[in-house]
């Protein structure tokens, strides 16, 4: 091969080499798998705030006399419903039109869960006069019938009051009130209504001068003495803050407690707005969870207009964890 021919072939090969290299590079690039995208940072799922164990287990209500708005029966029930209450408790004997109340309750789907015996302080089951006790029994029986008429389940009752050491002392209140309630039990059973004893400042089942460390054992013995499913406790959370610890009373009374009243009391504040007294509400909540309480809790404080009732609802929600 001549020198000129060899030089031509060599120069042609050199000229073609950049194209060959580029093609190979491009082929190599297309043949490789694309690099995976960078991993997204791990996101921890948000944990929902756990609901308090009492939420959905406590039904919130007020006493009828606390509704201060000058409106009709149905409108009063509707107002409470709008404010987040679950029901209401009436008084009996009463001048209220119970037929209208029952109709409004059913139309709104807003329960009347029971009644308070409205004469038990003045017409007492512990009165030394048998005629007065007969009237007290008649009023209790009226209350039982009225509760059944409006769709309620129980009557709140103060069984008596220690008025003096000779004619209405603790032993006499025990004996007389038990005899009275025993007479009412057949009607209570027939109507499906419970008689629930409220702990109040009546000098009975606690020592008025006994200090702040008293327990609820005397009240438990009184309730147990009936040996009846139709008698139980309507436990007022704030009433005995002055004489004992409400949470301990709740734990002692246990399943005897059927319904609750909600109020507060403090050494300096006296009876006050819910949450402003000395009641240890965290301990109360824990005690209610401990006994497995489910049922009605009714505010028994100073009522008022819509704004005041709204405040009561909010305070109940806060202290009870609703």
Which helices and strands appear, and what pairs or packs with what?
Blueprint: H1 3-31, E1 58-63, H2 73-82, E2 87-92, H3 98-108, E3 112-117, H4 130-149, E4 154-157, H5 170-191, E5 194-198, H6 217-224, E6 231-236, H7 246-253, E7 257-262, E8 264-266, E9 270-272, H8 281-290, E10 295-299, H9 306-320
Parallel strand pairs: 1-2, 1-10, 2-3, 3-4, 4-5, 5-6, 6-7, 7-10
Antiparallel strand pairs: 8-9
Helix pairs in contact: 2-3, 4-5, 7-8
Describe this structure in words.
There is one protein chain. It is globular, with a radius of gyration of 37 Å. The chain has helices spanning 3-31, 73-82, 98-108, 130-149, 170-191, 217-224, 246-253, 281-290, 306-320, and strands at residues 58-63, 87-92, 112-117, 154-157, 194-198, 231-236, 257-262, 264-266, 270-272, 295-299. Helix 2 (73-82) runs parallel beside helix 3 (98-108), helix 4 runs parallel beside helix 5 (170-191) and helix 7 (246-253) runs parallel beside helix 8. The chain is built from nine helices and ten strands. The chain has two domains: 1-35; 58-320, TIM Barrel, CATH 3.20.20.150. The termini are far apart. With 322 residues, the chain is α/β, with parallel strands linked by helices. The longest helix is centred in the first third of the chain and has 29 residues, at 3-31. Strand 3, helix 4 and strand 4 form a beta-alpha-beta unit. Strands 1-2-3-4-5-6-7-10 form an eight-stranded parallel beta barrel, surrounded by five helices. A two-stranded antiparallel sheet has the order 8-9.
